[in-house]
Amino acid sequence: METVRKGDYILLYLDSKRSFLVKATDRVFHTHRGYLRLKELIGKPYGLRVKSSLGAEFTVLKPTLKDLVLKRFRRITQIIYPKDVGLILTYTGIGPGFRVAEAGVGSGALTAFLAYYVRPDGRVYGYEVRQDFLKNARRNLAKTGLMDFIELKLKDVREGFDESELDAVVLDLPTPWEVVPRAYEALKNSGVFVSFSPTINQVEKTVEALRRWGFVSVETVECLVRNFKVKTGETRPETVMIGHTGYLVFARKSMLELEV
Ligand SMILES: C[S@@+](CC[C@H](N)C(=O)[O-])C[C@H]1O[C@@H](n2cnc3c(N)ncnc32)[C@H](O)[C@@H]1O
After folding, report:
1. Which long-range contacts (CB under 8 A, 24 or more apart) does 31-36 make?
2. Going by CA atoms, what residue is nearest to atom 13 of ligand 1?
3. Ligand 1 center from residue 211 Cα (angstroms)
4. Which domains does the chain have, with CATH numbers?
5. Which residues contact 242 (CB under 8 A, 6 or more apart)?
6. Closest ligand 1 atom, CA of 196?
7. Burial (CB count within 10 angstroms: exposed 0-12, middle 13-18, buried 19+), residue 51
8. 256 pLDDT tier (thresholds 50, 70, 90)
9. Residue of the CA atom closest to atom 7 of ligand 1
10. Which atom of ligand 1 has the smallest separation from the CA of 137?
11. Ligand 1: distance of its center to the CA of 172 in Å?
12. What is the 3-state secondary structure (H, E, C) of 163-232?
């Protein structure tokens, strides 16, 4: 049975609206529903339900990467949401062993997910043009324990990627169409290009550039997710949802046939 170790991040789940991600240390954790002595949780199995000083029941859960990114990453840029990360991973097939270049790193949210999935022998090369953002991203990513699979670089990616024969290039920056030629140079044949953009005019310019460079299988999608309120006889979608994040453009690198 997996137990809580000292220094582990743990998710204290109260209800569907409230959960707290804390480190299992000697400190006392205070909430509006009473306090918990965290050191008493060390050595206890995950999944255990414990009572606070005021009798509120918390469940000790092992956090997922999504919990860690959404609750512990300092976000100083817009980040890619898990719903869009899901499409990026499934449409590209990014998985163990992939060599992926990403730009810009921003707060490091997407970098974390990419690194998680390219393990144990893949690598993420993360490019960011702003030193302050890169420093923050490094601090965020250190919390995930995934830094062995990440190389962060301070560079304007319009000057080009340092790598070649990449399996995938993933862009989340304002002018992806300017990076299409650089992505073409860095990708291996049949490699995957992905770009995330919040506006349609960015999508049009990116797709035009991809067509000019001979990319094929160019596909643009948007992912909308609705959460549901489930109560027997009254089940319906939640009133509020994330209405818009951005559009995803996917494409594959092709090369000219030299002989017929
Ligand atoms: C929206 S943020 C990326 C957020 C990131 N995907 C995440 O999930 O945390 C866009 C980032 O692109 C960076 N950026 C913009 N132009 C760039 C360029 N030419 N080369 C590298 N980074 C660039 C910005 O500084 C910014 O940090």
Report:
1. 31/56, 36/12
2. 104
3. 24
4. 9-63 (3.10.330.20), 67-252 (3.40.50.150)
5. 81, 83, 225
6. 6
7. exposed
8. confident
9. 79
10. 9
11. 6
12. CCCEEEEEECCCCHHHCHHHHHHHEEEEEEEEEEECCHHHHHHHHHHHHHCCCEEEEEEECCCCCEECCC
CA of 128 to the centre of ligand 1 (A): 6
Global pTM reads 0.96
Residue 21's CB is within 10 A of a number of other CB atoms, namely: 16
Q: Which helix (H) or strand (E) holds 82?
A: helix 82-92
Q: Cα of 133 to ligand 1 centre, how many Å? A: 9
What are residue 77's phi and psi, to 5 degrees?
-135, 170
Rounded Cα gap, residues 105 and 118, in angstroms? 16
Place of tokens 């719903």: 83
Instruction: Find the residues whose C-beta lies inside 6 A of ligand 1.
Output: 77-80, 103-104, 106-110, 127-130, 133, 156-158, 172-174
One-letter amino acid identity for 110?
Answer: L
Residues 53-71 pLDDT 10s: 999 999 999 999 999 999 9
Q: Extract the tokens encoding 120.
A: 């144990």
Q: How far apart are the first and last CA of the chain?
A: 61
Q: How far is the CA of 105 from the centre of ligand 1 (A)?
A: 5
Position in ligand 1 atom list of the atom nearest CA 80: 8
- Would you call 205 exposed, middle or buried from its count of C-beta atoms within 10 A (0-12, 13-18, 19+)? middle
Are 170 and 88 in contact, with CB atoms under 8 Å apart? yes
Tens digits of residue pLDDT in 11-22 = 999 999 999 999
3-state SS class at 4 = coil
Q: How far is the CA of 218 from the centre of ligand 1 (A)?
A: 22
